[in-house]
Design brief:
This protein folds into two domains: 68 residues, no CATH class; 206 residues, MetI-like (MetI-like fold, Orthogonal Bundle), CATH 1.10.3720. Helix content is 78%, strand content 0%. Helix 5 runs antiparallel to helix 10, helix 5 packs parallel to helix 12 and helix 7 packs across helix 8.
Length: 302
């Protein structure tokens, strides 16, 4: 665990360099955007000095990294509030959405993958394949709009926007988790088909074990290792996809905060939000690595 955690340090340094560089390459002047088109040259220059934009780039990056180490993300140039407070006030809707979408994708994906593998070349396998193709092909924003049109506008079953209740979470979670469900389903099917052809599975069946025990106790557990890897990688997709999902469904989360910050060129909030998402992704991948040992005792990190 310590070694894996230490490897996260250069990863985060690389992410910080990318985030800092991208913001420098974006056209426009943050100081000018904050002052406005009616601001004078003196006001713009004063704003640049207050933001430290008049200093060399390497000095700005060093100050940025120092703040990250001290868990100080700076202040928002729009609201003048600490970036940590801005993120803290928006993180709950995003975490709720990501967790529900991940659980939905994992549950439905694993079940459909197992059914497709145990009924290979059947109608269930064909339906699972069609669903996987559609799930990967449909853009989140388009699928979200179609869900709103059907279940909110036409049927009136679920609210289209907002947050705070479980009903307001259903449609965004389905839209966000659709692609991940398809990917997990295909990976589970592929892994299960490979495991079901192994000798120990034939031995278990020859001993007279019930098919349910053979599938879920022997085959599925061994097939879960690559599936867990894919599921862990999907967390990054879900965190990134929350930007589109929260924008479409008007959820006041990290994604909508990031979009608003980009529109107003609020550099500290943009950098802080992306770094926070990167940290979450690294932590989740660390958890996935540790789950390997739980799933397969033969794996060790000596």
């Amino acid at each position: 665990m310590i070694r894996r955690a230490l490897w996260a340090i250069p990863v985060m340094l690389g992410v910080s360099l990318l985030v800092f560089s991208i913001m420098k390459l974006v056209p426009g002047d943050a100081a000018e955007a904050m002052v406005g088109i009616e601001g004078s040259a003196e006001e713009i220059e004063a704003m640049r000095e207050s933001l430290g934009l008049d200093e060399p780039v390497y000095v700005q990056y060093g100050r940025f990294v120092k703040r990250l180490v001290l868990l100080d993300l700076g202040d928002s140039t729009t609201s003048r509030q600490p970036v940590t407070d801005e993120i803290r006030s928006r993180i709950r809707p995003t975490v709720e959405l990501a967790i529900v979408a991940f659980l939905l994708a994992s549950l439905v994906g694993i079940v459909t993958g197992v059914v497709a593998a145990t009924h290979q070349n059947s109608i269930w396998d064909a339906l699972a394949t069609i669903y996987a193709v559609l799930g990967v092909s449909m853009p989140i924003y388009w699928f979200g709009l179609m869900l709103m049109l059907l279940f909110s506008v036409k049927l009136g079953w679920l609210p289209a926007t907002g947050s705070g209740s479980f009903k307001q979470l259903i449609l965004p979670a389905i839209a966000l988790g659709s692609a991940s469900t398809a990917i997990i389903s295909r990976q589970t099917r592929s892994s299960m088909l490979e495991v079901l052809r192994q000798d120990y599975i034939r031995t278990a069946r020859a001993k007279g074990l019930a098919e349910r025990l053979v599938i879920y106790r022997h085959a599925l557990r061994n097939a879960m290792i690559p599936t867990v890897t894919v599921a862990g990688l999907q967390v990054g997709f879900l965190l990134g996809g929350s930007v589109l999902t929260e924008t479409v469904f008007a959820r006041p989360g990290i994604g909508s905060l990031l979009v608003q910050s980009i529109n107003t060129r609020d550099v500290p909030v943009i950098q802080g939000t992306i770094m926070m998402l990167a940290v979450l992704f690294v932590v989740i991948n660390l958890i996935v690595d540790l789950l390997y040992v739980k799933l397969d005792p033969r794996i060790s990190y000596k």
